[in-house]
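Entry:
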Amino acid sequence: MNEHLRTALDLAASGVPPLPLRAGKVPFGNCRACAKNACGGRPNMRTPGPCACPAPCHGWAAATTDPHVISSAPWKRAWREAAAVAYHPGGAGLTVVDLDSTDAIDWARATLPATRTVQTTRGEHWLYQGTMPSSNAVRPGVDIKSLMQYARWLAPREGATAPLPNSVRALVVKQPSPARRAPQALTAPVPGIRGACPHRTPTYLSRGLAMAEARITAARSEIHATVYRTFLAVLSTHGGCGCLTETHVARLFTAAQAKGESPRHCTDAWANARTRLGL
Protein backbone atom coordinates (compact mmCIF):
# COMPACT_ATOMS: atom_id res chain seq x y z
CA MET A 1 0.00 0.00 0.00
CA ASN A 2 1.20 3.51 -0.83
CA GLU A 3 2.73 5.22 2.24
CA HIS A 4 0.61 8.37 1.83
CA LEU A 5 -2.55 6.29 1.48
CA ARG A 6 -1.68 4.32 4.63
CA THR A 7 -1.15 7.56 6.56
CA ALA A 8 -4.43 8.95 5.25
CA LEU A 9 -6.39 5.88 6.33
CA ASP A 10 -4.81 6.01 9.79
CA LEU A 11 -5.78 9.68 10.12
CA ALA A 12 -9.34 9.03 8.97
CA ALA A 13 -9.71 6.21 11.49
CA SER A 14 -8.77 8.67 14.26
CA GLY A 15 -11.30 11.28 13.07
CA VAL A 16 -8.87 13.52 11.18
CA PRO A 17 -9.97 14.19 7.55
CA PRO A 18 -6.95 13.93 5.18
CA LEU A 19 -6.36 15.06 1.59
CA PRO A 20 -3.42 14.64 -0.81
CA LEU A 21 -1.00 17.47 -1.62
CA ARG A 22 0.97 17.96 -4.82
CA ALA A 23 4.54 19.25 -4.94
CA GLY A 24 4.70 22.72 -3.48
CA LYS A 25 2.28 21.77 -0.67
CA VAL A 26 -0.82 22.63 -2.73
CA PRO A 27 -4.01 20.55 -3.19
CA PHE A 28 -4.83 18.78 -6.44
CA GLY A 29 -6.68 21.01 -8.87
CA ASN A 30 -10.33 20.50 -9.72
CA CYS A 31 -11.19 18.15 -12.57
CA ARG A 32 -12.79 19.49 -15.77
CA ALA A 33 -16.31 18.87 -14.50
CA CYS A 34 -15.59 20.89 -11.36
CA ALA A 35 -13.45 23.64 -12.93
CA LYS A 36 -14.53 27.19 -12.05
CA ASN A 37 -17.03 25.69 -9.59
CA ALA A 38 -19.29 24.51 -12.44
CA CYS A 39 -20.44 21.60 -10.28
CA GLY A 40 -21.70 23.85 -7.49
CA GLY A 41 -18.79 23.12 -5.18
CA ARG A 42 -18.66 21.65 -1.71
CA PRO A 43 -19.65 24.45 0.66
CA ASN A 44 -18.15 23.13 3.89
CA MET A 45 -17.36 20.02 5.90
CA ARG A 46 -20.54 20.01 8.00
CA THR A 47 -23.25 19.92 5.34
CA PRO A 48 -23.21 17.84 2.14
CA GLY A 49 -22.53 19.85 -0.98
CA PRO A 50 -24.06 19.38 -4.42
CA CYS A 51 -20.85 17.96 -5.93
CA ALA A 52 -20.47 14.18 -6.00
CA CYS A 53 -17.15 14.14 -7.88
CA PRO A 54 -15.15 10.98 -7.00
CA ALA A 55 -11.82 12.81 -7.41
CA PRO A 56 -10.07 14.80 -4.63
CA CYS A 57 -11.39 18.11 -5.98
CA HIS A 58 -12.14 21.41 -4.16
CA GLY A 59 -8.99 21.75 -2.09
CA TRP A 60 -9.56 21.62 1.68
CA ALA A 61 -13.22 20.63 1.16
CA ALA A 62 -12.11 17.32 -0.37
CA ALA A 63 -10.80 16.18 3.02
CA THR A 64 -12.82 13.24 4.32
CA THR A 65 -12.79 10.49 6.92
CA ASP A 66 -14.61 8.04 4.63
CA PRO A 67 -12.12 5.17 4.02
CA HIS A 68 -14.01 4.07 0.89
CA VAL A 69 -13.50 7.49 -0.71
CA ILE A 70 -9.87 7.72 0.42
CA SER A 71 -9.02 4.33 -1.07
CA SER A 72 -11.16 4.68 -4.22
CA ALA A 73 -9.50 4.49 -7.64
CA PRO A 74 -9.40 8.27 -8.34
CA TRP A 75 -7.92 8.93 -4.89
CA LYS A 76 -5.38 6.10 -5.24
CA ARG A 77 -4.07 7.77 -8.39
CA ALA A 78 -3.74 11.03 -6.45
CA TRP A 79 -1.95 9.33 -3.57
CA ARG A 80 0.58 7.83 -6.00
CA GLU A 81 1.32 11.33 -7.35
CA ALA A 82 1.12 13.08 -3.98
CA ALA A 83 4.13 14.74 -2.40
CA ALA A 84 2.60 14.87 1.10
CA VAL A 85 -0.54 14.35 3.19
CA ALA A 86 -2.57 17.27 4.51
CA TYR A 87 -5.63 17.46 6.72
CA HIS A 88 -8.49 19.83 7.46
CA PRO A 89 -7.96 21.06 11.06
CA GLY A 90 -11.50 22.45 11.37
CA GLY A 91 -12.95 19.09 10.31
CA ALA A 92 -11.02 17.47 13.15
CA GLY A 93 -12.16 20.09 15.67
CA LEU A 94 -8.70 21.66 15.78
CA THR A 95 -7.00 25.02 15.26
CA VAL A 96 -3.36 25.20 14.15
CA VAL A 97 -1.25 28.23 15.04
CA ASP A 98 1.40 28.11 12.30
CA LEU A 99 4.64 29.69 13.52
CA ASP A 100 7.09 30.30 10.67
CA SER A 101 10.05 31.89 12.43
CA THR A 102 12.02 31.78 15.66
CA ASP A 103 10.60 35.18 16.60
CA ALA A 104 7.08 33.83 16.15
CA ILE A 105 7.89 30.80 18.29
CA ASP A 106 9.35 33.02 21.00
CA TRP A 107 6.17 35.15 20.91
CA ALA A 108 3.98 32.05 21.25
CA ARG A 109 5.98 30.68 24.17
CA ALA A 110 5.63 34.01 25.98
CA THR A 111 1.98 34.59 25.09
CA LEU A 112 -0.02 31.42 24.42
CA PRO A 113 -0.93 28.47 26.65
CA ALA A 114 1.32 25.44 26.25
CA THR A 115 -0.16 22.76 24.00
CA ARG A 116 0.80 19.94 21.67
CA THR A 117 3.32 21.05 19.05
CA VAL A 118 4.53 19.83 15.67
CA GLN A 119 7.97 20.47 14.22
CA THR A 120 7.80 21.97 10.71
CA THR A 121 10.41 22.87 8.10
CA ARG A 122 10.55 26.52 9.17
CA GLY A 123 9.08 26.49 12.67
CA GLU A 124 6.28 24.84 14.63
CA HIS A 125 2.55 24.13 14.54
CA TRP A 126 0.76 24.62 17.87
CA LEU A 127 -2.44 22.54 18.02
CA TYR A 128 -5.47 23.62 20.05
CA GLN A 129 -8.79 21.84 20.62
CA GLY A 130 -11.56 23.97 19.07
CA THR A 131 -12.31 25.69 15.76
CA MET A 132 -12.31 29.29 14.53
CA PRO A 133 -12.01 31.29 11.28
CA SER A 134 -8.71 30.82 9.48
CA SER A 135 -6.53 33.82 8.65
CA ASN A 136 -3.02 34.41 7.31
CA ALA A 137 -0.45 36.85 8.67
CA VAL A 138 -2.35 37.68 11.84
CA ARG A 139 1.03 38.90 13.11
CA PRO A 140 4.58 38.51 11.72
CA GLY A 141 5.26 34.85 11.00
CA VAL A 142 1.91 33.63 12.36
CA ASP A 143 -0.98 32.07 10.42
CA ILE A 144 -4.19 30.54 11.79
CA LYS A 145 -5.40 27.32 10.13
CA SER A 146 -8.73 25.89 11.20
CA LEU A 147 -12.05 26.15 9.33
CA MET A 148 -11.88 26.12 5.51
CA GLN A 149 -8.10 25.60 5.48
CA TYR A 150 -5.64 22.74 5.35
CA ALA A 151 -2.34 22.00 7.07
CA ARG A 152 0.38 19.55 6.18
CA TRP A 153 0.35 16.44 8.35
CA LEU A 154 3.50 16.03 10.40
CA ALA A 155 3.88 13.73 13.38
CA PRO A 156 3.01 15.65 16.57
CA ARG A 157 5.19 15.60 19.64
CA GLU A 158 4.04 14.25 22.95
CA GLY A 159 1.76 16.37 25.10
CA ALA A 160 -1.87 17.25 25.64
CA THR A 161 -3.85 19.39 23.22
CA ALA A 162 -5.03 22.44 25.16
CA PRO A 163 -8.44 24.10 24.65
CA LEU A 164 -8.45 26.93 22.11
CA PRO A 165 -7.82 30.14 24.13
CA ASN A 166 -9.48 33.49 23.52
CA SER A 167 -6.02 34.97 22.93
CA VAL A 168 -5.82 32.96 19.70
CA ARG A 169 -9.40 33.76 18.64
CA ALA A 170 -8.67 37.45 19.11
CA LEU A 171 -5.87 37.32 16.54
CA VAL A 172 -8.34 37.26 13.62
CA VAL A 173 -10.56 40.06 14.94
CA LYS A 174 -9.71 43.51 13.63
CA GLN A 175 -9.43 45.85 16.59
CA PRO A 176 -11.12 49.27 16.37
CA SER A 177 -9.06 52.43 16.57
CA PRO A 178 -8.69 53.56 20.20
CA ALA A 179 -9.82 57.04 19.17
CA ARG A 180 -13.18 55.67 17.98
CA ARG A 181 -13.67 52.96 20.59
CA ALA A 182 -17.22 52.73 21.96
CA PRO A 183 -17.80 53.42 25.67
CA GLN A 184 -17.33 50.31 27.82
CA ALA A 185 -19.44 51.20 30.88
CA LEU A 186 -22.71 49.25 30.80
CA THR A 187 -24.52 51.74 33.02
CA ALA A 188 -23.81 54.79 30.86
CA PRO A 189 -26.28 56.06 28.23
CA VAL A 190 -25.66 54.86 24.68
CA PRO A 191 -26.32 57.74 22.26
CA GLY A 192 -28.04 56.79 19.05
CA ILE A 193 -28.97 53.26 20.14
CA ARG A 194 -31.66 53.14 22.84
CA GLY A 195 -30.51 55.78 25.29
CA ALA A 196 -29.30 53.10 27.74
CA CYS A 197 -27.57 49.77 27.44
CA PRO A 198 -30.14 46.97 26.87
CA HIS A 199 -27.82 44.18 27.99
CA ARG A 200 -28.25 44.15 31.75
CA THR A 201 -28.85 40.41 31.40
CA PRO A 202 -26.79 38.24 28.99
CA THR A 203 -29.91 36.64 27.51
CA TYR A 204 -30.65 39.53 25.16
CA LEU A 205 -27.19 39.52 23.58
CA SER A 206 -27.04 35.71 23.46
CA ARG A 207 -30.39 35.52 21.67
CA GLY A 208 -29.33 38.19 19.18
CA LEU A 209 -26.11 36.38 18.29
CA ALA A 210 -27.91 33.05 17.89
CA MET A 211 -30.44 34.66 15.54
CA ALA A 212 -27.62 36.24 13.53
CA GLU A 213 -25.79 32.91 13.18
CA ALA A 214 -29.03 31.23 12.10
CA ARG A 215 -29.72 33.94 9.50
CA ILE A 216 -26.28 33.45 7.93
CA THR A 217 -26.51 29.66 8.05
CA ALA A 218 -29.94 29.66 6.39
CA ALA A 219 -28.84 31.84 3.45
CA ARG A 220 -29.06 30.06 0.09
CA SER A 221 -28.08 32.97 -2.17
CA GLU A 222 -26.56 36.46 -1.96
CA ILE A 223 -24.21 35.24 0.77
CA HIS A 224 -22.04 38.37 0.69
CA ALA A 225 -25.05 40.66 1.07
CA THR A 226 -26.59 38.49 3.79
CA VAL A 227 -23.39 38.47 5.83
CA TYR A 228 -23.00 42.25 5.55
CA ARG A 229 -26.64 42.94 6.47
CA THR A 230 -26.39 40.56 9.43
CA PHE A 231 -23.18 42.17 10.68
CA LEU A 232 -24.84 45.56 10.29
CA ALA A 233 -27.89 44.43 12.27
CA VAL A 234 -25.77 43.01 15.10
CA LEU A 235 -23.64 46.14 15.34
CA SER A 236 -26.62 48.50 15.19
CA THR A 237 -28.18 46.71 18.17
CA HIS A 238 -25.18 45.55 20.19
CA GLY A 239 -22.20 47.55 18.93
CA GLY A 240 -22.69 50.86 20.70
CA CYS A 241 -22.26 49.84 24.32
CA GLY A 242 -19.10 47.74 24.24
CA CYS A 243 -20.80 44.42 25.05
CA LEU A 244 -19.50 42.58 21.96
CA THR A 245 -16.29 40.65 22.62
CA GLU A 246 -13.77 38.99 20.31
CA THR A 247 -15.46 35.67 21.04
CA HIS A 248 -18.83 37.00 19.86
CA VAL A 249 -17.31 38.34 16.65
CA ALA A 250 -15.47 35.04 16.07
CA ARG A 251 -18.82 33.21 16.25
CA LEU A 252 -20.23 35.40 13.47
CA PHE A 253 -17.09 35.02 11.35
CA THR A 254 -17.23 31.23 11.79
CA ALA A 255 -20.84 31.11 10.58
CA ALA A 256 -19.96 33.29 7.58
CA GLN A 257 -16.92 31.21 6.62
CA ALA A 258 -18.97 28.03 6.85
CA LYS A 259 -21.06 29.53 4.01
CA GLY A 260 -17.97 30.15 1.88
CA GLU A 261 -16.88 33.64 2.93
CA SER A 262 -13.13 34.19 3.19
CA PRO A 263 -11.54 35.70 6.31
CA ARG A 264 -10.80 38.83 4.26
CA HIS A 265 -14.45 39.15 3.19
CA CYS A 266 -15.57 38.78 6.81
CA THR A 267 -13.13 41.42 8.02
CA ASP A 268 -14.13 43.82 5.22
CA ALA A 269 -17.85 43.33 5.84
CA TRP A 270 -17.40 43.94 9.57
CA ALA A 271 -15.29 47.06 8.97
CA ASN A 272 -17.79 48.42 6.42
CA ALA A 273 -20.68 47.89 8.83
CA ARG A 274 -18.77 49.68 11.61
CA THR A 275 -17.96 52.57 9.28
CA ARG A 276 -21.56 52.92 8.17
CA LEU A 277 -22.71 53.11 11.79
CA GLY A 278 -19.89 55.43 12.81
CA LEU A 279 -18.50 53.01 15.39
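The chain has a mean pLDDT of 83.
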